[in-house]
Design brief:
The protein is an alpha+beta fold. It folds into two domains: 2-186, no CATH class; 193-261, no CATH class. The protein has helices spanning 23-29, 35-45, 67-91, 94-106, 115-118, 137-151, 188-217, 222-231, 240-247, 252-261; strands at 2-6, 9-12, 18-20, 130-131, 155-158, 165-168. The N and C termini lie far apart (73 Å). Zinc ion is lined by residues 159, 161-162, 164, 176-177, 179, 188.
């Protein structure tokens, strides 16, 4: 299967989707024997997985199934086959092999333990894409690691959510990985963002209620209440005191009196 660099990422096959360059490495480092993980690998690498993996068993009873149902069954068959592949890669301890190789990569070295995979890559000079064997995730990851090392420094981080190591560029701000969180289809990074978002929304509602109460009791002026509401919204807001500090730096002494007299 053809593989090439594309806008700093990798492009697999003729019409595959662009992936971050370190994606196959990280997918290997975090490899878990879980359905959602196999689903993720299916969607990340698409046509990298052989068409035969979608074949339904010869004795499969398709009576009464629509084409749509059959397509679902075929996809499920492929995901099952990817799950088998995950178990095989884990049995061969490839997550450990790649972690050791990534630690060497941090120092700018390409580990000799990946030589066997390196040999599987067909290099094409110039603008021609290189080639890696179909469904061979370790070889694809080896190609990607080799390319990544030429692009920028890399560092191994431990994801605070799934606790698995992943390979990042130093400029990547997130400590969270992009792989599915255990037992979920959402990635650790997306989950964290979502959690942060929900926390922020909850805090917003609390602050809104608090200020609304103060307004009713008369300890907050109508003008301040309206001004705070105009400046703040659930997606982007400051608590009242912080908002005031940012707005008018030196009026805190009169603030309470002004509110009470309102
Ligand atoms: Zn993670």
């Amino acid at each position: 299967m053809k593989v090439r660099l594309w806008r700093g990422g990798l492009l697999l096959g003729e019409r595959g989707k662009a992936l971050p360059l370190t994606q196959p490495v990280n997918d290997l480092l975090g490899l878990r024997d879980e359905w959602d993980y196999a689903v993720q690998l299916d969607s990340n690498y698409g046509s990298f997985w052989p068409d035969e993996w979608m074949d339904l068993p010869a004795d499969f009873d398709s009576t009464g199934l629509t084409d749509h149902d059959l397509a679902d069954e075929a996809r499920a068959a492929q995901i099952d086959r990817i799950a088998d592949e995950i178990r095989e890669l884990r049995r061969r301890k490839l997550p450990d092999t790649f972690l050791a190789a990534c630690k060497q990569a941090e120092q700018g070295h390409f580990s000799v333990t990946l030589a066997g995979f390196l040999e599987q890559i067909t290099r094409r000079p110039g603008d021609e894409p290189d080639e890696v064997p179909e469904a061979d995730l370790p070889t694809l990851a080896t190609w990607a690691l080799d390319q990544a090392l030429r692009q920028r420094p890399v560092e191994v981080r431990e994801c605070p959510l799934c606790k698995r190591p992943w390979l990042a560029s130093p400029e990547q701000p997130s400590p969270y990985c992009d792989r599915p969180y255990p037992g979920r289809s959402m990635s650790c990074r997306a989950l964290k963002k979502d959690e942060h978002f929900r926390e922020s929304q909850r805090d917003w509602r609390r602050e809104y209620k608090r200020l609304h109460e103060r307004r009713k009791r008369g300890t907050l002026s109508e003008a301040d209440w309206q001004a705070w509401r105009a400046d703040n919204n659930p997606d982007d807001w400051y608590a009242f005191d912080e908002w005031q500090r940012r707005r008018i730096p030196v009026t805190t002494a009169t603030e309470t009196g002004r509110g009470l007299g309102d």
